């Protein structure tokens, strides 16, 4: 047995109303809605016009984005000179370096200053002991 609503839906899928069917639908709508038909048609027209305006607005925005020239950003150089940080080339120094500004040419080794001539009044033995306590390598002066 064939289900009647299923048959009706399948027939509607292939049926397109011609002029006679449109007239029949208009007569049925007039009988159902009567005097309210102009108000209903007006509200449908307003809704359809608003829908088209919104659709056109979206289309214009899309076209503006697609066909507009790309925005040119201003280039800013945010890099700062290394002198500002006071760390210029510190990573390239050796572990032993001589300080030429000092008259005694003292040797700087890992933060411990070993004066070569005892000009600071310190004891050479005391300096040697502190270097031995820290297990630091000996310099040529210490030998």
Concise synopsis of the structure shown:
This protein has 143 residues and is mainly α. Among the domains are: 17-67; 88-133, no CATH class. It has helices spanning 4-14, 19-33, 37-67, 124-133; strands spanning 96-98, 107-109, 112-114.
Cα distance spanning the termini: 115 Å
Helices and strands: which structural class? mainly alpha
Q: How many helices in DSSP terms?
A: 4
**Low-confidence parts:** 103-111
How much helicity do the residues have?
40-55%
Per DSSP, what share of the residues sits in E-state strands of 2 or more residues? 5-15%
Kindly describe this structure.
It is elongated and about 120 Å long. The relative contact order is 0.04. 47% of the residues lie in helices and 6% in strands. The termini are far apart. The protein has a 3-stranded antiparallel beta sheet with strand order 1-2-3, with no helix packed on it. The chain is mainly alpha-helical. Among the domains are: 17-67; 88-133, no CATH class.
